Amino acid sequence: MAVQEARQNTEPGTHAGGCTCGDCPHGAREGHRRAVAAFLVQRDEFAAGQGLPAAVAHSASASRQWVSEELTQSADLVAERRRAEGQAWLARLWLRTTCTVWAAVVVLLLAQSLTAIGAGWTTARTAGLLAALVVAGALTAASWFHRARGGALAPVIGEDNRLSTSRAVATAWVLLVGYAVLVLAARLAAASGPAERDALIAGLDLARGAGVVTVLAVVCGIAVLVRRVVGLRVLTQRLQKVRADRPRAADLLTDDSGRGTFADIQYVVLSGVALTFAAVRLARRPDQLPDLPWGLAVAVLVSAATYVAGKYAEGGRPVVLSVVRSREAGDLDGPIRTGDDIEIRGAGFVPPGAHTADRLSRMVVRIGPVHVHVPLVPVTGGFSNPTDAVLTVPVPADVEPGRLEVQVVTAAGVETNRYTIDVTE
User: Fold this and answer.
1) Distance from C-alpha of 191 to C-alpha of 178, rounded to nearest angstrom
2) Burial class (CB in 10 A: 0-12, 13-18, 19+), 404
3) Cα(240)–Cα(192) distance, integer angstroms
4) Which residue of 64, 70, 202, 340 is most buried, as measured by CB atoms within 10 A?
5) DSSP code per residue over 1-14
6) Handedness of CA 72, 345, 387, 335 (dihedral sign)
7) pLDDT in tens, 256-280
8) For residues 343 and 392, what is the distance between their CA atoms, to the nearest angstrom?
9) Which contiguous run of DSSP H or E holds residue 396?
């Protein structure tokens, strides 16, 4: 479908049949979809050897360079449309989060109404509903003031424009404890006798809510610690980070490349189980903070420690292991000379989440004082160069023969170690 749509002669900027003007969210989405379709067609045509001008078709290096430049320009257009779509999506997200919050309030009202059949409506039900209205109102106000950054989800979106697992878990616990305190406050305001008021105040004692307070303190501390750890590791070039186009729900369970990670999954699952248990305890005993059993609280703490350890263990600097002269079939063996292709072997050249063409085209190899952009070599369905473990670049004529240092600069701006090679005339 994408190939067929790219081949259609549709006038750009029209509002009929798919707006691409960028003035509305649908236009940004449609413009990105069409740019991607056109890029895929162009890449596959170049991979099949089609579309090359006669002036560069006779030279393998010249045709490769020309193809790389054309694909880079097309990839930049796709990236621009993708960023526009991401901004439009974030602008719409605040309304979705607001609707979700108030839908949860309606669900709570229906659940309380159904459970009140036979048992009757109680003060605790009124207090729970009033507390939900206060929380929903606060989240709605936050959504309005942060409507350009995702509404109520703005606090849990990290600097890399992804949903932060640590912030999401901490926010969930903060909302639960805040809701529980509001329920107790509403019941305390409606209490008629001193005995009932004393019982409600006693429900806030640390002896009853020690488990949930401990978990709240730990998860909030971890949210701050993880942000600091990630920031320092990025600054010291021990972790590669590229900005995402927009946050996704899968970010809570995956790494930057979209693969599921054990540390994140177990942290979210165990925290979700503990939150569910605490919410049920609050529904059963609305006169005190949820008394989270220490066994369950310790399980959450162990899960949090595993999550932090996973953050310390992930990442690592890219490394160049070896550099050899690239040899095609029929070539004679020999030293590296100017004009030859060299093959750089190593690990970590492509940062997680940087597999799109616009980010691959930003990779640079420093050969002595000369910066060489890594050419994009298309194949059907992707690119054969660059890859995470191997890069192939030409040695430009501007390089002076002699002993030179080779260094790779990734799309995240991280530099590898220096590797020395000998270039002869």
Assistant:
1) 20
2) buried
3) 60
4) 64
5) -HHHHHHS-PPTT-
6) positive
7) 988 999 999 999 999 999 999 999 9
8) 5
9) none
